[in-house]
Amino acid sequence: MARLLDTGNVWWQSFDHPTDTVLASMKLGLDRETGINRIIRSWKSPDDPATGDTSYYLDPNGSPQLMLYKGQTKKWRSGMWNGRGFTSIFNTSVVNDDNESTVVWGVTDPTIIFRIYTHPSGNVRRATWNGQRGEWFESFYMPKDPCDYYGQCGPNGNCDPNRDAGEFVCSCIPGFEPKILADWSMNDGSSGCVRKRSRNSSCGRDGEGFVKLENAKVPDSMTGRLNKGMYLDMCRQECLKNCSCTAYASSDLASGIGCVTLYGDLLDTRVFADGGQDLYVRVDAIELDNKLGQGGFGSVYKGRLLDGREIAVKRLSRTSRQGTEEFKNEVQLVSKLQHNNLARLFGCCIHGEEKMLVYEYLPNKSLDFFIFDKIEGTGLDWKTRFNIIIGTARGLLYLHQDSRLKIIHRDLKASNVLLDATMNPKISDFGMARMFEHDQMEANTNRVVGTYGYMAPEYAMEGMYSMKSDVYSFGVMTLEIVSGRRSNHYNQESSSLGLIDLSWDMWKEGKALDVMDSSTIASESYFKDQVMRCIQIGLLCIQESPKDRPTMSNVVFMLVNATSVLPSPKKPAFISKRKFVDPDSAAAAAGPTVPSINNVSITDLEAR
């Protein structure tokens, strides 16, 4: 009689012959000694256990990566193993040597029972057993968002699901341009991108280099070469020697030794709000020189006027959703504004399909570069953070009240606040701004634009915007500056959905300082009362009802007058009392609340 072990395995090694399911400690992948390749395949249908056409396996070629197929079509891949894990896949370990190339899923609590299985619909799921309820609780599935689907933006395309509301998720990787512009204009990036044509290709010449794409899923490594003994700088030199090499990345973040060089088209690249890794893309010298950055609307380059003034040229991409109307709107508005906390516009150019804006050059990039980067954030002490909060508030007050015009920005966020040489903040990007009459209080739009996490509820759900919409965005950004966290980032350790939930919970419990960025705390150069005041002001600005939020004149007054008494904030907007149970915790296995949901607001935005 075969003996069943506690792990669920049978003595005759049933784990070597999986069907549609993988369990904890079970290997998936290739045993090079026996030739056994463990693959899981779905049922034909939920009611028919015959072998279906959805398969899930570990690809041993190059750097190992998990692959999901529907028939012969690639549906999703995990991204390559980077020495620490796969992107978006938790508690895995990989062995890749001469004997095997396998992956194993683990648990932090051995009493937890879970399974990874393929579903006939074409996805892979993770479910945890709830013993008390006698049922499986599904906690994970892939593909999930549009950018999870393999090759969503075609060869040399980059998929970003965190774009502004209504904006196309696809863009070309630096150094490339749309292959079929007409398709991209219709929000179809499947044709991908091709290398930009250059009169003088710099391959093998001085000046050629690489642009770093952060928080990326490294492209499909099937065309790559794994170099286990190379440091990144050695990998860079190796890539420069071969004109077919298009990119490189670290293959082992844990040790720092090892890299993968990629050749030909870069397939299935995407970026994440958090996570991912650095990808270094090869570009011609002409692309590399003076390029300051790249955003959703195009690239920004450094230049110099004839009189010697340094400038930043914002060149809109041809596939940008900012059309001529928004472009002219930005020019007309910004040209009439002059304030120390607003980016100054020098001029513009419209020639055929080319649209460019010429701004003053600000050497310290944007605010998000500092507050969301663990390394750069260490150089941002509390005094600087507080001055940025006050400066941004003054710039917004000028727009709302003190300028000749009454302007609602509609897209205030950390990436739209630029920093000059002295770290003085300057609000930029007025493409979505709207001008009000001085007696006008609010307006309505059928086209909701902006960035998820910063949009006020009345704007996101009803299209109603006003000065209080900007106040809401300012409140979110203030909490981001204090905490160093993104507003839409889920923090698993706090069991909270995001920054707003965390800030509100900590405030109610009298632990508001726990929200503060750890790098600022380590510097011991902050004033607790000042930090508490900023958190409270941030919460006042994100209250659910617009009438409860302060005006920007009140915000500035509260910031600069340390003795002024602040009202207690009411419940913020978009608060959800949903507590997710970690599927690897004892509560998930035995607790009766998996999960509980109460008072959930759902916003469904549809672009036109």
UniProtKB/TrEMBL annotation:
Disulfide bridge positions per record: C153-C170
Chain sites annotated for binding ATP: K314
EC number, UniProt record: 2.7.11.1
Sequence ranges assigned to domain Apple in this UniProt record: 203-284
A GO biological-process term: recognition of pollen
MF (Gene Ontology): ATP binding; protein serine/threonine kinase activity
Record domain Protein kinase: where: 286-566
Subcellular location: Cell membrane
Principal EC category: transferase
Residue ranges of every copy of the EGF-like domain listed in the record: 143-182
Catalytic activity line of the entry: L-seryl-[protein] + ATP = O-phospho-L-seryl-[protein] + ADP + H(+); L-threonyl-[protein] + ATP = O-phospho-L-threonyl-[protein] + ADP + H(+)
UniProt keyword Cell membrane, yes or no: yes
Record's protein name: non-specific serine/threonine protein kinase
Organism name: Linum tenue
